[in-house]
Amino acid sequence: MAPSFTSFFFLFSILFLLTLSNLHSAEGASNLRPSDCKPKCSYRCSATSHRKPCMFFCQKCCAKCLCVPPGTYGNKQECPCYNNWKTQQGGPKCP
């Protein structure tokens, strides 16, 4: 017996929903609240010798993006908004 149109439609719908859920995860969607920014940024900036400017920009980026990359350096791909926000000169705005 050949699969019906309904079966194909159902399978396509499931695959489409899975794709959307993966895109949402890849966008760095986070459950952070603005009040979570300071502790996350404190850890993010803990290894730098320029702590004050790091904290300023990290908190600004966190407030906009509601995401802070894990670790003290790198991993910006985890938060695309944080990663893609640039200065007027084209450099990274967020530490």
Structure, explained:
The structure is a single chain. The protein is mostly helical and about 100 residues long. It has a domain at about 35-85. Helices cover about 55% and strands about 0% of the residues. The chain contains 4 helices and no strands. The protein has helices at about 5-25, 35-45, 50-65, 80-85. Helix 2 packs across helix 3. The longest helix has 22 residues, at about 5-25.
The H-and-E topology, N to C, reads as HHHH
Helical fraction: 40-55%
Average residue pLDDT: 83
Helical element count? 4
Family: Belongs to the GASA family.
Protein name: Protein RSI-1-like
InterPro entries: GASA
Keywords: Signal
What keywords describe this structure?
single chain; 95 residues; 0% strand
Task: Chart the SSEs and their pairings.
Layout: H1 5-26, H2 37-44, H3 51-65, H4 80-84
Helix pairs in contact: 2-3
Task: Write a concise synopsis of the structure shown.
Helix content is 53%, strand content 0%.
